[in-house]
Amino acid sequence: MPKVTRFSNQQLAEIFRHIADLLEIKGEIVYKTLAYRKAADNLEGLGRDAYELWQEGKLTDIPGVGAAISEKIEELFTSGRLGFLEKLEQEVPPTLGELLQIPDLGPKKVALFWRQLGITNLAELEEAAQSGKLRDLPGMGEKSEARILAGIEAYSRRTTRAPLGKAWPYAQELIAYLRQVEGVRRVELAGSLRRMRATIGDIDLVVATTQADKVMEAFAEHADVMHVLSKGKMKTSVEFHNHLRAQLWAHAPQRFGTAWQYATGSKEHNIRLRELAQKQGLSLSDQALVHEDGSEITCEEEEAVYQTLGLPWMPPELREDRGEIQAALAGRLPQLVSIHEIQAELHAHTTWSDGKMSVMELAQAAKKRGLKTLSITDHSSSLGVAGGLSIQDLRAQQEEIAEARKAMGESLTILHGCEVEIRADGSLDFPNEVLAELDLVIAALHSGLRQPRAQVMERITRALQNPYVDILAHPTGRMIPNREGADLDMAQIIELAANHNVALEINAHPERLDLDDVHARMAIEQGVKVCINTDAHTESDLDMLLFGVATARRGWVTPKDVINCWGSEEIQHWLRSRRKNR
Predict the structure, then answer these.
(1) What pLDDT is stored for residue 427 in this prediction?
(2) How many CB atoms are closer than 10 A to CB 122?
(3) How far apart are the first and last CA of the chain?
(4) 542 partner at 20 to 30 Å CA-CA among 41, 220, 287, 518?
(5) pLDDT digit string (tens) for 16-67?
(6) How many helices, marked H, and strands, marked E, lie in the chain?
(7) How far apart are CA 548 and CA 27, in angstroms?
């Protein structure tokens, strides 16, 4: 039987977006590029694995996937390559796709630079801009050249680490694979991914086994492996076709606890533990705790490592040497918020703006996940690219929401809200008399993120001072790894939020995770409530909640700090009490 390459939905989406980029640069007709982008978007938001649909012969059931694209997906699964893409990359240098990541550079400009100056990569573009070769091209000038150089500089500051949302689901697939390998008694996630950092270097995995050689061989032979970077008796490192890297450690079951704790880190947290062990006449490694006389304390479970050192077990998200060991010694570790305590989604979009679900479909998806409260918060008019609502649209939407409320009954409370754009002058899209009609108002920045700090801070200050703003969404506007956030004074924003009783959002989308963990902790220390939302546009987006909760946990956030943990009546009481004070 031929070897099958199991591309994930995300990998397929990336391939089709790459095709669309190259076709645009080539000058292909628009509808072809749009077809690939639509297929990519729908694959990314698909609730099922495209591989399983292929096995069932149902690829064309995916919206936007017709016969031509389904054939390409089948070719990828059956051969691990795509002839159409290989031919296209012979016509258009594949490295040109990276240039589209530079702000203000679209396919036409990239094609212009390629055809006129032979520019095929980022280094050549930077050299041409620095030497003034771009300014004399059609539609260019000195200012355009300067903007490109600034864009290249910003791009160079982006992280090369993988976003949490890309690494996490793939790691779950690896864990499932390893659990089927002969000799594996236990396999667990470790490293920065277990600590749920916003970005990760490698996927770290630890197995308990007495047959390490077999496990290492099976790992190196995984169908997705592109390169085996190193292979030993106890550790193997590989790179996959999706460019993620992973390291697998194998340890005897009786030593699994110390190995797992060590591999989880962080480095700074482990140094603190070793210092604590030394004070007790012990040394701590990935193998065991060792007395001065050489006798060992082996730990099959991670809890035993901490217990031996006189500490309670610590959630991995806290292990960053930010005071967690001192808090543990003093008995002051926080009871962190958990995903099971979230009862509400207060930031979600429907087909009224740029969402993919109707109000009723979104309500049913929220109920299916056990939520008790849902706020419909489509974009306001200024965000034209997202199909923002006019005042008339907003009021017309009330009828559809009323119908959904009637259908859902007491099983789900549906609030009518809006994600209102903060304009360039700091005013909001809708006047206060319109905002007063809404159950909930979320203010957000989507444009002008590169303004000087004083200017962008003035905009946010005005928004937070508006008596109808309940929540500030994704404050910095960052998009991991492609866009830096606005230059904000977060300490001042947190102080303003505290003074005006405005909640700050932790946006759970793994490309945002904004507030980040550091600022989330600053916020709750000043009594500011946070709100963990998925900013859902598709049904599968609702399942990104775990990333927002993880970010909150990294910020030492407890259930009492999170308004989504409240029941429907308590949320509505908070909203009404804010209105009474206006």
Answers:
(1) 93
(2) 17
(3) 70
(4) 518
(5) 999 999 998 998 888 888 889 888 888 877 767 888 889 899 999 888 899 9
(6) 24, 17
(7) 40
User: Phi then psi for 317, rounded to 5 degrees?
Assistant: -60, -20
Task: Determine the Cα–Cα distance for residues 305 and 313; give it in Å rounded to an integer.
Answer: 8
Look at residue 529 and give its three-state secondary structure. Answer: coil
Report the DSSP beta bridge partners of residue 303. none
- Can you tell me the distance from the alpha carbon of 217 to that of 232, in angstroms, rounded to the nearest whole number? 10
Residues 118, 120, 122, 123: is their CA dihedral positive or negative? negative
DSSP secondary structure, 135-173, as one string: TTSTT--HHHHHHHHHHHHHHHTS--SEEHHHHHHHHHH
User: Among 217, 243, 227, 226, which Cα is nearest to 160's?
Assistant: 243
355, 542 in Cβ contact below 8 A?
Answer: no
Task: Report the Cα 41 to chain-centroid distance in Å.
Answer: 16
In the chain, the percentage of residues whose pLDDT exceeds 70 is 98
Residue 33 sits at the vertex; the CA angle it makes with 45 and 351, to the nearest 5 degrees, is 40
pTM above 0.85, yes or no: no
Name the DSSP class of 381. T
**Whole-angstrom distance, CA of residue 530 vs CA of residue 551:** 12
The DSSP letter of residue 563 is G
Kindly give the parts of the chain with pLDDT less than 50.
Answer: 1
pLDDT reported for residue 4: 64
Alpha-carbon Rg for the chain, nearest whole angstrom, is 26
Whole-angstrom distance, CA of residue 535 vs CA of residue 510: 11
- For residues 429 and 382, the answer to whether their CB atoms sit within 8 Å is yes
SS3 530: strand
Q: β-pairing, 245-251 with 184-190?
A: unpaired
Give CA–CA dist 54/60, Å, rounded.
9
**DSSP letter assigned to residue 253:** G
C-alpha distances (whole Å) from 262 to each of 67, 258, 269, 276, 400 are 50, 6, 10, 15, 53
Task: Tell me how far apart the alpha carbons of residues 547 and 525 are, in angstroms, rounded to a whole number.
Answer: 21
Altogether, the residues listed in the chain come to a count of 582
Find the helix or strand (DSSP H, E) in which 444 lies. strand 440-444
CA neighbor of 395 nearest in space, from 449, 434, 344, 366: 434
**Contact criterion met (CB below 8 Å) for 200 and 164:** yes
Cβ pair 207, 222 in contact under 8 A: no
Q: Other C-beta atoms within 10 Å of 552: how many?
A: 32
Q: How far apart are CA 207 and CA 558, in angstroms?
A: 31
Return the amino acid letter for 382.
S
Looking at residue 31, its pLDDT comes to 80
For residue 201, how many other CB atoms are within 10 A of its CB? Answer: 17
Q: What is the DSSP letter of 341?
A: G
Express each pLDDT in 334-391 by its tens digit.
999 999 999 999 999 999 999 999 999 999 999 999 999 999 999 998 877 677 899 9
Residue 340 in tokens = 């099971």
**Helix, strand, coil % over all residues of the chain, rounded to 5:** 50, 15, 35
User: How do residues 228-265 score in pLDDT, each as one tens digit?
Assistant: 999 988 999 999 888 899 999 999 999 999 999 999 99
Cβ neighbours of residue 432 closer than 8 Å, sequence gap 6 or more: 466, 467, 468
